[in-house]
Specification:
The chain is of the alpha+beta class and 358 residues long. The protein has 8 helices and 19 strands.
Length: 358
């Protein structure tokens, strides 16, 4: 199977990006240094090509009711023109994917899903439409998606003439026209900083990307994106959440709204006792990596690192780890095994870095 390319592929090559396969696409891993790219997002602004993500439209009289049924979070009661983050679960409560659903109108919802799960999600969602008056459309190939992230993101888009309302809170969305093109602008992103994601035609994305780069916005790759999201402790499908765990295992209990009359997986999740607890750990020495063993002070394995990296902001190795619920140490003392050496890990109740989103 040939590797896919986003509409911005040539632009990445022109910037001498280090490319790597990701979710079936040839994607930019980094352009300069990971440190430079991370700090650009934390202090100014960075731009990411996330056009590999999938976009589905749900339209029709039952659009909102249908999306509310297939996700665990409360979509029905979200305000119009708001975005809702949620797991997508099976009847047994295990996670198919995590997604963001955007309430564009009473009869129109945009769903953005992870690139690696586009086909799986499409087949699952399509199989659940029988009792709803809706039409599903997969427009993943028709959209490009650019994420402009950082404290200067709003100022930059306003300077470009993008019509952003004076009051446009975090997790809001709007459809607008800019330079003759219909675009969708969402105040979302996965870095912990303020920022916007722009859904558009491929041609518009190329123009916006070039304009951002010309105006000094730093292009950022997947490596920086991963460091940024681990620093603020955001879960990632295939790491903290997967086909074998439920949202209740992965620190996402806040996204499971049992007060809803019904949703796929509700009965299973109501009766479910979590097997795991997601913890945040940092090291004074060493870099934790995915798959490393987490131990208690006696040396017994109690869990596994699901995401690990060197934090650019704190200068320490940081990790998210799933710990067996029955073995969570009461004293909150943990060890991480790195190449046969055990390193003491610091437990964190909150994220390693406080982001700056609105």
């Amino acid at each position: 199977m040939s590797i896919l390319k986003t509409s911005l592929h040539e632009e990445h090559l022109a910037l001498n990006a280090k490319m790597a396969p990701f979710a079936g696409f040839d994607m930019p891993l980094q352009y300069s240094s990971v440190k430079e790219e991370v700090m650009a997002v934390r202090e100014h602004a960075g731009v990411f090509d996330v056009s590999h993500m999938g976009e589905f439209y749900v339209s029709g009289p039952d659009a909102i009711a249908f999306v509310d049924f297939i996700v665990t979070n409360d979509f029905k009661n979200a305000e119009m023109l708001k975005a809702v983050y949620s797991p997508l679960c099976r009847e047994d409560g295990t996670v198919i994917d995590d997604l963001i659903a955007y309430k564009l109108a009473t009869d129109k919802v945009l769903i953005c899903v992870n690139a690696s799960n586009i086909q799986k999600d499409w087949e699952w969602i399509s199989s659940k439409t029988a009792n709803f008056n809706i039409t599903l459309t997969n427009l993943s190939n028709d959209y490009s998606l650019i994420a402009l992230q950082g404290p200067k993101a709003e100022l930059i888009l306003r300077d470009f003439g993008v019509n952003i309302p004076a009051e446009f809170p975090y997790y809001s969305i709007l459809e607008t026209v800019h330079e003759g093109e219909k675009i969708i602008v969402a105040r979302t992103g996965y870095t912990g900083e303020d920022g916007f994601e722009v859904f558009s035609s491929h041609d518009y994305a190329k123009k916006l990307w070039s304009k951002l780069i010309f105006n000094g916005v730093k292009p950022c790759g997947l490596a920086a994106r991963d460091v940024l999201r681990v620093e603020v402790c955001y879960p990632l499908y295939g790491h903290e959440i997967s086909d074998s765990v439920t949202p209740l295992d992965a620190g996402l209990g806040w996204t499971v709204k049992m007060s809803k009359p019904d949703f796929i997986g509700k009965a299973a999740l109501e009766a479910y006792k979590p097997k795991y607890q997601l913890v945040k750990l940092s090291l004074e020495r060493g870099i934790p990596r995915e798959g490393y063993d987490v131990l208690d002070v006696t040396g017994q394995k109690i869990g596994t690192v699901t995401s690990g990296t060197m934090s650019v902001v704190t200068g320490k190795g940081v990790a998210l780890a799933l710990i067996e619920k029955a073995k969570v140490p009461a004293d909150k003392k943990y060890l991480i095994n790195i190449r046969n050496t055990n390193y003491e890990a610091n437990f964190h109740a909150k994220a390693f870095v406080t982001g700056g989103h609105k």
